[in-house]
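User: Could you check the structure of this?
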Amino acid sequence: MTDKHTSESGHWYTEEGEPKYTIIGANGKERNTTLADARKLGLVPSVTGIIGVSSKPALERWKITEAIKSAIVLKIEQDETIDEFVGRCREHSKLVGQKAANRGSEIHHEIEQGFVSGKSSESYLAIMDWLNETYPLEKWKAEDSFCAKQGYGGKIDLYSESGIFIDFKTKDDLKGKDPKRLVYDEHGMQLSAYVQGCGFDKAERVSIFVDREETSLISCHIWDDTHEKHKAMFNSLLEFWKLNKNYDPVEQWANIESSIDKEEKNVS
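Assistant: Sure, the predicted structure tokens are below.
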């Protein structure tokens, strides 16, 4: 498995579907892969990177709330300017978000290890109990990466050969919450992008939320017939991403193949 050196929005994949999150730079040191590298190598952006170009009202509300909390907790210091205080509050609230993200990564890793190596954890066991009850006899694949013919890639948390696609999310204070109120269009788009990228016309899509503190507590949402809507939404964002970045991986694949053909002809 490939380590997560960068945020998911900074992930890139090869045409063969292999992760290419980092490369070796001219100085011989490993660094994060950039858009410039992607152009040269014909890499594709991640599903989350594409969805990231859209606004996320719920996330923005959460950020604002955390910033307000920081302002209340920190208090302005003597001789500190308003701008300095605002900057300190901003950095403090970022730490809260980073802590939540790190905890989410830890839980994802625990779940992954359960499916890959059989290592037990509260989150893995809770998920397996639900899966065995809801989808008995299914064979599951965890953390498989892919590259879609449309010019994007990703790594799927979990899916089955029959076409059940599952994505894991972590959440605070999950107890008593209705899973229907936890999901947003971006979650549906992510799963629909995976379904399309793996060549399925239709598939079951499931969002599973895991409580960050009480990891044995999960809440599962099986999506209804919104796949076509979410697929269309994602493809619109994909087209916007290509135009905005002035980079179309599909066109680049053709350019690279054409260059190789010319070189082979010159050699012969």
